[in-house]
Every structure is written in structure tokens, then in C-alpha cells.
Amino acid sequence: MSTLVTAQAVKELREKTGAGLLDCQKALAESGGNMEEAITLLRKKGAATAGKKAGRATKEGLVESYIHVGGKVGVLLEVNCETDFVARNDDFKTFCKDLCLQIAAASPLYVTRDEVPASAIAAERDIAMAQVQGKPPAAIQKIVEGKLEKYYSTVCLLDQPFVKNPDKTIKEMVTEKIATIGENITVRRFTRYQLGA
């Protein structure tokens, strides 16, 4: 490490990212002490780490619940990880609680795009096509695909922007958590209850 990295800078980066001490130190050294560049390096490393861990079995985990103030909305959520050590970790529990809050607030219908029925996608595509009649033919396909992306970000939990930080999707949060915790994490299923719905 040619760049001198201060303990204060490592601490600050660790607080911002949740990454490990050594990873923060290496990222700061590689970025020449530039905090923003170090964060970008850690995010890239996190995505690569998550990709490597994607095939690992997730047989432990947590069933988290949330009842909104007033008792009109409730959520049950199952999130899986590799070990019960991680499942008992406060960081993992907080992550699961945040996912419950997301589900209560944003009302997704599915976890991933793969779960959306083909009939629902076809219906959305038909609606989008009807809305773009009269547009230039070259633009129609792009507009329809854009509308489908918006539909996915409404009905699929992993595609939704996080309610506490709209700059991140839930999928990006999961990827970051995999990188931070060091185990594969899978959002398995959820049920959202709403009084009278």
C-alpha cells in the first residue's frame, strides 16, 4: 500500500458502507484516499462477491413480521441465509425489518420478475401499446419497454426503489448486504395483509 490511509478515513468509510475493515483499508489505498472512489470500488467488489455467492444454498434465515401503527397493515416475510449465525445477527434482523417496512409501504405483489404471470405481462403490454398509438413506429417499442420496466418496479419487490433511500433498489440492497455479511441471502416469500382489502 503506497498511499498512507488514516484510521479515521477507514472508520468513516466503514460507517458509510458497512464493509469490513480490511476491505475499507484496501479500497482507500487503491483510490489514493479518495472517499467517493473507494465507495465505488467497494460497491463493484460487493456486486462481484454477490455474484459468486448466488449459487450457495440458503437453508437458514428468519421469518420477520411487521404490524403498522393502528394495526391496519401487516407483513410476514421469509428471508434465507446460509447459517443461523447470520440469521441471529442484528444487522441481518434490521435488514429484514427494513424489507417488511418496504412491503408494507410499497405493496409489491411478487418477489422477482420470474414470479409475474405471463398473462399479467401480456395485459400490461397491451395497455402500453394502446397508450402509444400514433407515436413514431421506431419509438413505440422503447416506450412500451419503458412502461413495462415501470410496471415491474411497482409489482416486484426486488425492482422497487427502497422507501428509505429511493436511489437504491431492493435488489441493490440485497447485493450490498451479501457483500457486507459474506453469505448468500435470498428473499424467499412474503404476505402482506391489509384490513378490508
List strands and helices in order, with pairings.
Layout: H1 7-17, H2 21-30, H3 35-53, E1 60-67, E2 73-81, H4 84-87, H5 90-106, H6 118-131, H7 137-155, E3 161-162, E4 165-169, H8 170-181, E5 186-194
Antiparallel strand pairs: 1-2, 2-5, 3-4
Would you kindly provide a brief summary of this structure?
The protein is of the alpha+beta class. The protein contains eight helices and five strands, in the order αααββααααββαβ. The radius of gyration is 20 Å and the shape is globular.
Report on the structure:
The protein is α+β, with helices and mostly antiparallel strands and 197 residues long. It has 3 domains: 7-53, Ubiquitin-associated (UBA) domain (Helicase, Ruva Protein, domain 3); 60-112 and 156-194, Elongation factor Ts, dimerisation domain (Tetrahydropterin Synthase, Chain A, 2-Layer Sandwich), CATH 3.30.479.20; 117-154, no CATH class. 54% of the residues lie in helices and 17% in strands. It has 8 helices and 5 strands; from the N terminus they run αααββααααββαβ. Strands 1-2-5 form a 3-stranded antiparallel beta sheet. A two-stranded antiparallel sheet has the order 3-4. The longest helix has 19 residues, at 35-53.
Task: Give the strand line-up of the largest sheet.
Answer: 1-2-5
Order of helices and strands: HHHEEHHHHEEHE
Q: Largest beta sheet, briefly? A: 3 strands, antiparallel
Structural class: alpha+beta
The number of distinct β-strands equals 5
Radius of gyration: 20 Å
CATH C-level class of the largest domain is Alpha Beta
Helix content: 40-55%
Strand content: 15-25%
The average pLDDT score comes to 85
CATH architecture of the largest domain: 2-Layer Sandwich
Number of domains: 3
